[in-house]
Amino acid sequence: MLRRRCDSNCMLAPYFPGDEAEKFFGVHKVFGASNVIRMIQMVEESKKEDAVKAIIYEATSRLRDPVYGSAGTIFHLQKMVEDLKIQVESMRAQVVQLQEQKNQLLGILMNVRHLDSTSSIHERKFDGGDLMLDEDPLMAYDPITFFTENDWTF
């Protein structure tokens, strides 16, 4: 642990309460307390709290990854975003392909239904059902003898 702690007289005390000693330890180990004090003094009063949060984040990142720090996390997240963009484009292409297949299948289905509806009309006339031509009294006559049987002359 540290020899020094951020006591109540420390300039960093408002940013590192006693229950957050680990954060102060990480910042002190990575940057040194005097460097952190100088960095904070260069920042506007309204932005000091955000600056300390950024310093804590960078110190934590540097302890985890001494070479890249937070940049390593950023690179990793950027790689994930690029991979996800590629996946999204792949999914979009699959959606387009599936929509085209759906449209083709619907077209085939509509053609089959159309053929079924037209063929069923013709089939009913010849299937021995009620619409059979031989059962229609007008259609049952032989065209050759029709005129002589009915005394029609031309």
From TrEMBL:
InterPro entries: LOB. Residues 1-95 form the LOB domain. Keywords: Coiled coil. Residues 74-108 form a coiled coil. Belongs to the LOB domain-containing protein family. This is LOB DOMAIN-CONTAINING PROTEIN 4-RELATED. It comes from Salix purpurea (Purple osier willow). The lineage of its organism: Eukaryota, Viridiplantae, Streptophyta, Embryophyta, Tracheophyta.
